[in-house]
Give the backbone structure.
Amino acid sequence: MNFLRFPDADTWLVAATEAGFIVDDTLAAYTHTHAIDVIGTISIGGEYDSETGDVIAPPVVLDGWHVNYQGDLPDDWEQYVVSPEQPVRVWA
Amino acid sequence: MRGSAAFRTGVAPGGALAGPWVKNELYRKARAVPSLDLRFADNKLLTDAITGANLVTFTRASSGTFVGSDGLLRSAVTNLVLRSEEFDNNTSWTKPNSTITANAITAPNGTLTADKLITNNAASSGRASVSVTAVTESPATLSCFAKQGETSVFGLFISDGVTGRAADFDLITGTVSGTPTAGMTASIEPVGDGWYRCVATVASPTGTTRSLRLVQTVVANDGIKGLYIWGAQFEETSTVGEYIPTTSAINSAPRFDHNPTTGESLGLLVEDTRTNLVRNNTMVGAVAGSPGTPPTNGWVIVNSATYTSSILGTGIENGINYIDIQYVVAPGAAASVLFYCDTPAASASTAYTGSYYLKLVSGTSPQVRFVWQDGISTYNRTFFNLTATLTRYTDTLTTAISANLARFAVGIDAAPSGATFVIRVGLPQTEQGASATSVIFTDSTLSGGKNRAADVANITGTNFGTTRTNLVLRSEEFDNTGAWTRGVGLSVTPNTTISPIGTLTADTITGDPAIDINQTIAGTIGITYTNSVYVKAGTATSLMFRDDTGAGRHIVFNPSTGVITSQSGTFVSTPTSQPLANGWYRYLMTYVADSTSLRSLIRFQSAGSAQTFIAWGAQLETSSTATAYIPTTTAAVSVFESSFYNQTEGTVFADAKVTTVAPATSLTSVFALSDGTTNNRITVYKRANADISTRLDVSTSGSSVAFINAGTFSVSNLIATSYRVDDFAISLNGLTPGTDTLGAVPTISRLNIGSYADSTFPLNGTIRRLVYFPQRLPNNTLQAISQP
């Protein structure tokens, strides 16, 4: 599995379109040869009132647009591969 | 196409002359035999009940859960090794001290996909190695099919980064050789044709690093000796499961689901991708006590002056991880939440569905309700009572979540007289989407939850059918000067001889040495073509059959004996001649085009003027083998061939179930016949519309042909739908069929099971049975077979 971090959502959309994963505005996220889990922005932390759920301290949004990917990497996607020490999401 | 006849007869069902449809209730109702019958619920297999063939390709790039026939929640077998049959792939497999010969021998599944593992000249055992990231502390089972070659001792090795453990297997005696390393167990099982499935398990590895090796343990040092391997599999379980092949992504077995209460077999589960945002829904870290320690990371179990809680313990019931919590509620206590696990980082303006397994273990059931909090607002849902059965309760908040939190809690009504009760809480799940899907196990380490990949099930490619095209024009009319070019002095006398199929359509061709008759056909460089022609001897003793003008590729043959006496140029396979009755031979050449100008050309090679030969059935096709001859006249002719599908007319019967009908905002598909796009489709789905009707939707070449609403989509749906030019119909659960009498039939190349034409909009339910009849059944028959 590859953890990918694109600079922003637009870069991801362009890259996915060029790779043929997005056709007619539809993302082919799951096929017999690849799997794509678009996480988007990642927020960590945040503090909430345990009784009411009210926000005490909002979560922090990390840089980038995050995507988990399985399959052969398209050309030029190596630049987006990251190796998080503690991934926030993986496949089951 | 098989089974194209309607099999209709006037004999009563079961009579001596009855049609084959009497054997099955559906067939009897249809008074026809299908060409495809996928009985997922009955057989719990993907195979076609008509042929026994497995035409369905299924993948899911993650694990997934389902309810087994015993009522237990189970995880599907998942293979975490990539390229499980491609050890020559250098991205997935490293080969220290070894080389791999790909596709060297027939594999246990009958395909030529097994590789040979050869120790190179290094003074060490050769191996194919791969690394896998595992869940902490989970059991590790590595398996691989192996067969003896020149060597016969095969080894499996698992390292967790701290300890490496190995087991050897004797592929002659079919036994575990010696004793595996402490902490590892091993087994070996024969699977036929000299193949064994070798299995090694480490029950308690440490860490998350798994280095795996498939080892040819005999140090041969000659770069030749080796053994054969196929089908490697790594599972995070203590027992080996059915083999699941992988390519570029991990793969998991199809799930054949069951009703957890009745045990009813529900068929193939097809679900969309979902992420369980609840962290640690398996209750890791909980410690019994008063109040005890809640599960690690994010869990809150309310313990206050009026709600005194105690954790009684954790366990597993029917495969469902649970925690038992006792509450003592003081008289006059106000309404409150009881427990929750925060699911932060939710998206704004999005529907979420939450679910809990809940059970009243003791005491009197309180009035409980789900409570959603989004960091700004609180949404109190409808009260309900718990029962003594561990039941999954779900709730969808269609009101927009407006902030970063999607807390899904269980709350309680005010208790004027107080209460004491024990509640069992299992496997909470919060997922983005308008309905609950199967449980996704999570652990305490992932703040963003775990994702279950979508199920992808379809019949496509050659499993669906193939289209063959003869590119040669006037393939039996060598006298047609518009299509065929003649050399100087060459003449053609049409229809002089009986052709290979018994028609008087073969032509006699007369000419002098080095004179030819030919037809030029546009081709594509790099594409593989097969050129063929039927020839019967006349007076000529040597002829040339030539194709590609770029390379001058040709064969020279004796038309009397069929012997190819010489050849020139590069071919994909050796050119051949196939003998037929009455002196006919079919000559075949397969090659990769290096020119855009291809030819079917026959030339006189032997000496002597006015020689003759007889020709018939020229064919040029984009194929690596010659296929059955297709006659042409003014244009190239394509023929679609499928083991089950009829491009002209047909009927699909589907038996589909969902746990809950998706809301009006969601389109969910039962099946789709398509070309992989939405331009050509025959698809049945639940509309994303307020009337949630079941719709037959046909589009041909991008133009809508039919939209027929058949009635309200429900939990159980028996659907029969037919297509033929200007004749479309659909019946749902025995209702009067809706029809459309105008439109062309699209050209189809795949069947998506539980998804839309472009593989989107999954059913999020189960397909009990999917049946295809290669004829357009009458409307009253559609009504009869869809009758519940």
